[in-house]
Every structure is written in C-alpha cells, then in structure tokens.
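Complex record, three chains
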Amino acid sequence: MEGADLAPDPEVLEVRGLRTELRLHNRVVPVVNDLSFSLRASETLGIVGESGCGKSMTALSIMRLVPDPPGRIAGGSVRFCGTELLDLSDRQMRKLRGSSISMVFQEPMTSLNPVRTIGSQIVEAIVTHRDPGRRAAQEQATEMLRLVRIPDARARLDDYPHHLSGGMRQRVMIAMALCCEPRVLLADEPTTALDVTIQAQIMGVIAELRERLGTAIVLITHDLGVIAESCDRVLVMYGGHGVEEATASALFAAPLHPYTRGLLDSVPRLSAGAASASIGEPRRRLREIKGTVPALDELPPGCPYAPRCPLASAQCHAAMPPLIAKRPRHLAACWHSDRVAELSP
Amino acid sequence: MPVRRGFPRARLAESTARLLGNKLALVGLVISAVVVGLILLAPILAPYRPDAIDYRALLQAPSAAHPLGADDLGRDVLTRTLYGGRLSLAVSLTSVLLAVAVGVPLGLLAGYVGGATDEILMRLVDSLMALPSLVLALTITAVLGPGLVNAMFAIAVVGLPAITRLVRGQVLTIKHNDYVLAARSVGVRPAVLVMRHIMPNVLGPVLVQAALGIGFAIITESSVSFLGLGAQPPTATWGSMVQVGFQYLETAPWIALAPAAMIFVAVLGFNLLGEGLRGSLDPTSRSAT
Amino acid sequence: MLNYAARRLLGTIPVIFLTSVIVFGLMRMLPGDPVQLLVGQSQAEVSAATIATIRHEYRLDEPIYVQYLAWAGHALSGDFGRSLQNREPVWQVLRPRILPTMQIGLTAWILAIVVSVPLGAITARRPGSAADWIGTGAALTGAAMPYFLVGGLLIYFVALRWGLLPPSGYVPPTQGILASARSTILPALTLSLGLGAVIARQSRASFGEVLQFQYIRSARAKGLSETKVMTHHAFKNAMLPVVTILGVQLATMFSGAVVTETIFAIPGIGRLLVDSILGRDYTVVQAVVLFITVLVVLANLLVDLLYGLLDPRIRRA
C-alpha cells in the first residue's frame, strides 16, 4: 500500500486565527492579524519577515508573555498538543513555560541576569519544573552546558554573564531553554546579534539538540540564509499577516507571493554576478522592494502589501486575500499567485 | 543686539500642551494656585485683623465666630494662617529666586570654563552638600543671627549647590552638542554662546528644580522658625505659629494644626507641580501618568 | 577592589577638610564675644586679667589659622575643646546624645525600608493602575508632610487623646527594652515618613527600570511565578540604586532628627545642635556639625564600596 502521505507527525502546535493587539495613544493596533499555522514534532518552522511584521509578537503570544499593558491577545486559538493555551490560567501556563514550551530571545547580552551566576540561572530553570536535589540539579546544568559545547562547563557555572562572550551567552540561553526537554522551542532571532561565524555554530548547536531531543522548533528570523539551511517549512509574514507558507525548498524555488519574490530577489548573490559577469559587463544593481514597511497602525484596507506590489490590482486594494493552498502544502495569501512567476529578476 | 528669549513660541506651546495633559502637574498647579490665591486674597477673605487681640476668645475652639479657633491671645487662627502664609511664601519664593540667580551663573561658569575653576567650585559644592540641609540652614542662621531675612539667606545658600550642580551637569552635556560646536567654529563669542545656545536648554530642568525648591524652602523656613531661629515675634510665619501652637497642643490643637496643615498643602501643591513639570519636560522619565 | 576602596577613601579627605574649614569659619563669624558670653553666665565679678586668661585658654588671642590648626589638631584626637556653657569637655556632652539619635534613626530607617521598598515594587509593576496612583500618592504626600505635622498629629491622638504612648521623653534601653521602645516609636514613625517617601520614589524608579529588562522576560519564559521574578531577579538589581541613596538618607535623617527630637524632647544630637545654637555655645556647635558631616561622608563612602560589592560588574573594575 502506498504511503505517500503516511500519517504525518502529530501536530504539537496549532495556531488558528491568532490576533494580538497593542493599545497605543488611545488607538488599537493589530500586531498579529488572523495568523494561522501549525508545527509538527521534530519539524523546524521558520517565520521570516522584516522588522515590525509581527514575528516576535507571535512567539510572545504563544508563550502568553505579551506585555500587558499595552498588549493583549485579542482572539484566536493556540493549541499545544491539543490543549488550548489561551484558556489556561496563569498558573497552568507557567507550568508549561520552560518545561514544555521554551523560548530563546534575541539579545544574549541582556537576556541573562547580570548579578547572578550562570549556574544559578540554569539551575533555577531546572528546579522550577523538576525536583532533583541541589547537587543533581547542578549536575544537570553542567550536562546542559556540555551539550551546547561550552568548554570547561563545570567552572562556567560560577561565572557571571559578563564573563562570557555573546556567542557563549546565547548557548547558555539555549541550554536554559532546553534543560527540561520541551516539545517546542521558540527561537526569536537567536543569531541576529551575533557574528556570522558564531551564527553558524549556534545553528549547529540547535540542530544537534533537535536531533537528540526531537524538539519542534519555530525559528524566527529575517535572514533567508538561515531559513534555507535550517528550516523544513517556512511562514512568511507581512504587516501582521501570514502571507505565504510552504516547505523551504518550494518557497525558494517557486514562491507564490510577490513579497516573497521581492525578498528573495533582494538577497545579494555572489554566484549570480560571478556567473554572468565577464570583463566589461556592468555589475547588476541590488534589487529592492520599493517603498517601506507600513506602520502597523496605518495599514490600508485590503492586502497590506498592495501599495508596494507590482502586481496589485483594484481587488488587492479592496479585499484581504485569504491564506489558502495554491498547491499541495503550499499556501499563499494573494489574488495573483499565478502571476508571481513573471516577476523574475 | 538683544539676546533672544529662551523659549521659542512653538516649544512653549508644545510644553504647555504636554503640561496640561500631565495630570500630576495639573493637580499640583491647581493646588498651588489655590494656596497662592487664598494667601493673596487674605485681606479680603480674612474675617479679622491678624493682630486683633480678644481676651474673651482665648484658646477658643473652632466656632462660627472663629472658623479655625483662636490662639492664646484670642487672635483668629484663620486670619493669622492666611496672613502668615504671605510671609512664608514670600520668604520661600525669594530664597529660591536667590538660589537660582546665583546658582545658574555659577553652574554655567563651572560647566563651560571647566578646569581648575570647575574643580574648586565643585569641591565647595560637594562640601556644602555634605551637610544635611536643615543643619546647614540652622548654622548659617545662627551665624547671621535669628531673624526671618537671615533665614531666607540661609535657605538660599542651602538650595544653591543643587542648582549649581544641576546647571553644570546640563552644560557639560550640551557643550558637546553639534550645534554648539558649529557655533564655536564660526567664531561666536563664549558669552553669546552661553547665553543664546546653552542657557535656554538649561532652563527646563532648572524650572523643575525651582518648583521643587519652593516646597523645600517652605518646609525649611517653617522648621527654622519652629525651632525659634527664624521669624521672631511679632513676625508670624506658619512655622512660628506652629511653635507657639505646640505649647497648647493638648488644650488647643488647632493653633498648631491649621498652619501645619497649610504648610503640607502648599508643599504638596508645589511638589506635584515640580514632579509634573519634570514628567512633561523630560519624556524619558517615568511618572504615574 | 582594594584599589577602588583606597581611592574613594582618599577622595573623602578634601571634602571633610573643606567642610571643617567652612564650619570653623562660620562659627568664628558668630556675633558676640564668646568670652563675654561665657563670663556673663557666671555670677562672680570678673577682672580684666581673668578675661585675658580665659581668652588665652581658648586661644582666642591668636590668628585665626592658628586657631583652626589647633582645633583641627585636637579634633583629630577626639578633643573638641570645652563647652562654653558648662565648661565640660565637648565630647562628654556629645557622647551620650549619640545613642538616642541612632536608636530612633535606625528604627525609622528600618520601618521606612520595610514599607517603602515593596511599595515601590508594587507600584512599578503596574504603572497607571489604581495601586500605582495610591502608592505614588502616598509617597508624595509623605514627602510633603513637615515633621511637626506628623509628630503633632501623632502626639495629639496617640499620646494625648488615647494615652497609648508617652508624648515625649526618652528611655534608654538599659532602663528597660519595652519602655525604651515605647518612648521611641512615635519619633521613629515621624522620622520614617520623610525617609520612606524618598525610598519609595527611588524603589519605584529602579524597579520600573529593571522590569523592562530582557532578563526579566527570560525569567518569565522559564516559567517562574511573578513573585519569584520579583524577588529572585528584579530585587537585587533594583536595590542597587536604592543603596546609593543611603548616604543622602543619613543626611535627611539628621535634618529630621533636629525637629523630631525637639518635638518629642529626645536628648539626642539634633536637640543638642539646636540648644547649643540658641545658647551660643559655639564649641559644641562646631563639634556637632563636624561629627554629623563626617558621619555622612563616611556613609557615602560605605555606600560606594557596598555598591561595588553588590554589583559584580563593578567589582572587576
């Protein structure tokens, strides 16, 4: 019997119609607007988009860490292994945080408490959810540090954050997030603040741990290179909406949304220039998407990308296209997905 | 060529708008205005003359005839509180003005000139600030001799270092701003530079400090007078009235409580105003609104 | 660290020196001939020769800088001269006054901290909420209340009307801990209001700042309860700025003690200052002011060093 679509891995995270808003200057601004996606066990989903598109807020919403005031989850559903997170009490949610769902943040320099040792902070994560003795907790902490490949792990426990470099601190953050073996890890731009060489190491650490622990990962980034290397599936966000979702390979090969196309085109490519250039041929100008990202409180009706979109029509300005499957397992929110292929460089 | 005024119109309008939107400042403004208004209208509002002695009303409790009671000489407490306020407020305002008038130039000097002048001035300021405020005020008043005018000078001296340091700090920050460097590179003379470019930006925090300083001055003056070193009889400020009133605390508490309460209200008003001003002039500071 | 401490210690010397000069100079400016004052207190007839002897004894016939050096020299060894009022060594006059002031001051300070630090933390948690308005309002009100208003109200109601506590007077702990406590509660409460208002402000500001930091978000992401977040992560960091104002607090305490001790008839340093100023006893005034100043300067120094201990980032520097 054929099993092309064998029962897929169970969904650990299912987000449906998530809406999160911010109350600013007496106005309500939707920062996550009717977002839907799902995540399977052992899968890595990348969420990509420019600053201000709502990716971080999505992660915070899932963790229910949206700062309130001024933020608020206005509606929708977030199911973790079948449990509706938005219905849980604070206490129940707290039990999940750090143990079943973990998050790693962008700024390793400031995400660790400067006046407490590394060891105490990792141990804290452990004892909040498990109950080993102090000695055992320290052993586990040391083990986690080794897993993230921090040299001389035992001694590092007594160090303070400012003794470590940015890359090391990020590893500590990862160790802290994974010490209770969560099912889901939300990584909000984990490598953005780090050097490119360190980036690769960190992504390597994450990949290794994923292999070991089978954690599902949501990787938030604006770096398409990272997406290409590490993600199984990708969700593209713009203006608080999800505009395209597909496997990484499908997305890069044949995007179905003009914004994705624009993003891909704007990545500088050494090979393209080198391949086509010969002596005397002019170098190609970097392609950019015209216009700027809209402020979330000034979104026009209809598709948020319409003002900048080369394919925009009257329909685009009038109505927001739904995020639906244009091909198997490839969703896009565009009235003119069929014409995106025309936008070749 | 006349020196241009510190606040350009647009900035003033904007500041005022922010001020009115700042609830704290508004409450403070209202309270202070009420207090000042009451005091200024004392001659109209007061039912009696402040020194009208009435032997039939000695230590009389609050009644229809004397809404806040009468003191040990039968004088109306309400009247005396209103009139006492005039002196208290006048002394406080004057001492703050003095502190600003001397402190701002000193701070500008220290900040702009720098070097040895700055070092010496700041050491002096540090020494003055090392002494607790009331202790210093009492000591200076003792040196100059008891009396309200001397107390006023003493309070001015106590408030001086804070203003000087504040202004100096501001100058140090502003000194390195591009527009100052630009002006200097064009050859603008230091005096003009300071007056036209640096000082207007210093005025904001100074205003805040001044508002808070009025509250501080009121409390200090009343404390000095309370201890017998400020207003001498027959001069009456709130502080000296409290002093007298304390002798009769058990039998006629209103004599002390009325002026003490007025001090509290006045200081609260000016403090709120100062805090509110700080909030609206410095958008990065966090306040309750 | 030791280097840092040594440097700070050296830095306080010029300040103390300058302050002593200022104090000394101020005292010399007091109107009235101190010898006449002194002589005027006693009943006996005094001859010109006696006056000259007294003047010489107090070195008043020498140039002022010599007087200063002599005074400073003696002061360093603890000899502050003799009181003009009762000819006792100043130190003898000053010493017994230290305990009451410190006892009340310490009690007031502890009271202030215990109430104000959590108050600041609570108001910082939810800016703009009802709790914030109430807490901030209370702090601002406390800051505006003059000591004699608070003290007066406390004396009138608690002591006079309800007779719960003595309205004045001081009982040292040696004469009974309970009695001593009863005599110091009201003055300590009065003093604590002024101290507490400043601490609450500072606490709110620093908690407010700390709670914005990313590591607080990390702590929450680990699944810690809000209480744990506040106590284990926010507290230590928020305390740093509060510690820095300790020196200022000591100065405030002395200023407050002056009025409070007068109201409650406590035989402390504050009262001594007032009495000696009123009595033109300038040797005592000199000594008291210098004593207070040295304490404040040392407190500031201690605070700086403590700060270095609390913040591991500074320790390294």
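Note: Residues 112-181 of chain A form one domain.
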